[in-house]
Amino acid sequence: MLFLQQLVNSLMLGSVYVTVAVAFTLTIGILNFLNFTIPTLFMLAGMVGWALSYWGIPFGLSGPLPWPLALAMGIVAAIVVSLIVERFTFRYLKTKYGDSTEHAIPLVSSLGFLLIVENLVRIGYGTEARRFEGPDANMTMDVGGILIRIPQLVSLIITILIVIGLVQMMKRSRIGRGLRAIAENPDAANILGIDTKRIVPVVFMLTGMLCGLAGALFAVNYGEVAPMMGEDIGAKAIAGMVIGGLGSIWGAVLGGLCVGLLELMTVHFFGADTVQIVVWGALLIVLIAYPKGLLGHHSIGKGKL
């Protein structure tokens, strides 16, 4: 029974990794660069949500806000920062330097944003973990002796619905077809009349929304936020994305769930100290056996979304 309980817990934790891994997949699958601000967006939503629920809007404009509203504003903050990153790590540099910015410069500049935002949060709120007062911790249900927290179940359902909606949007909507065309061949997309300056920000908006939602769900489910919380989640989400297959949304889903399962099963059998060894060891084994990942494609940017 304890094993089944851990299995259920791993599924709930994996839903957080899934959301962040899908965010990574969008930027690397469509724009072909690794967006290092993603862990910061995850952290920012949780920290902004905590600050607004604990203190309220700055300068005395309000008292402490209800936690759902505070987290909603945290998600908005993540989206806004993501769009700022798009403006200065992709659009501006691409316009100024052209194809020389294809990989290295956006990657390094996004890393700069990560460090700036993370340190601003640390200066403003300190480095300690903060208790987030969300829904009642006793909101659990017993299913055949297995305890399931209702907020975690709701989070899992929300994650599944978002992934399904995102996949359908990519396949059926005009914006989705434009994004897939850019992923396939940006120059050909421009020739076909797709306005990349209007379409590309959608990727960053979706990235901010996914990361913000993941940060909000993490705060609700685990009742704690910290300025450094994005680093571990981001690293494991990258591992999940690679295990599942670069550029594949469903690969990110599978990889995120696998990482969640590996993490909690490792804690259950071997202790927390061995988690990193097992997760990254599994990543290396998958890459040796399946270089493209479990559900990956032959190359990034070639019709995989």
Automatic annotation (TrEMBL):
Q: Name one GO cellular component term.
A: plasma membrane
What keywords were assigned to this record? Amino-acid transport, Cell inner membrane, Cell membrane, Membrane, Transmembrane, Transmembrane helix, Transport
Membrane-spanning intervals of the chain: 12-34, 41-61, 67-85, 105-126, 146-167, 199-218, 238-262, 269-290
Instruction: Tell me the membrane topology, using the record's own terms.
Output: Multi-pass membrane protein
Any Pfam family from its record, for instance, is BPD_transp_2
Localization (cell): Cell membrane
One GO molecular function term of this record is: L-isoleucine transmembrane transporter activity
An example Gene Ontology biological process: D-alanine transmembrane transport
The keyword Heme belongs to this UniProt entry's keyword annotation? no
- What is the first-listed, main subcellular location in coarse terms? membrane
Which InterPro entries does the UniProt record give? ABC_transp_permease (IPR001851), BCAA_transport_permease (IPR052157)
Write out the similarity annotation.
Answer: Belongs to the binding-protein-dependent transport system permease family. LivHM subfamily.
Q: What is the name attached to this protein's record?
A: Branched-chain amino acid ABC transporter permease protein
From what organism does this protein derive? Pseudooceanicola batsensis (strain ATCC BAA-863 / DSM 15984 / KCTC 12145 / HTCC2597)
